[in-house]
Amino acid sequence: MGSGIIGRAMLQAYRKALENANKTGVAHEAVNNIRRASKTMTEQEARQILGVTEQSTWEEIAQVFSYLHLAPRYSHVQC
């Protein structure tokens, strides 16, 4: 009998917490944080974009990154 009362009270408290979270926007913010986190690039995707392999040295990766990062800034300059 006592566990039933506690169970109902916990369920009621949980529902109230969800209701309050929806009112204050906390639930919406949590969903946005989850979406943002799921858009994190994996190491494999980064390597594919840079065109490097797992065996590439850090210097090679930095050189490719620098080139790709700076290229748009100097694309208007004619040699």
Automatic annotation (TrEMBL):
Signal peptide segment = none
GO process terms (BP)? protein import into mitochondrial matrix
Q: How does it sit in the membrane?
A: Peripheral membrane protein
* InterPro entries, per database record: J_dom_sf (IPR036869), Tim16 (IPR005341)
> Where in the cell?
Mitochondrion inner membrane
Instruction: Give the residues annotated as coiled coil.
Output: none
What are the GO cellular component annotations?
Answer: TIM23 mitochondrial import inner membrane translocase complex
Keyword tags:
Membrane, Mitochondrion, Mitochondrion inner membrane, Protein transport, Translocation, Transport
Taxonomically, which superkingdom? Eukaryota
Annotated family = Belongs to the TIM16/PAM16 family.
> What is the protein named?
Mitochondrial import inner membrane translocase subunit Tim16
Q: Give the organism the record lists.
A: Aegilops tauschii subsp. strangulata (Goatgrass)
Taxonomy, top ranks, is: Eukaryota, Viridiplantae, Streptophyta, Embryophyta, Tracheophyta
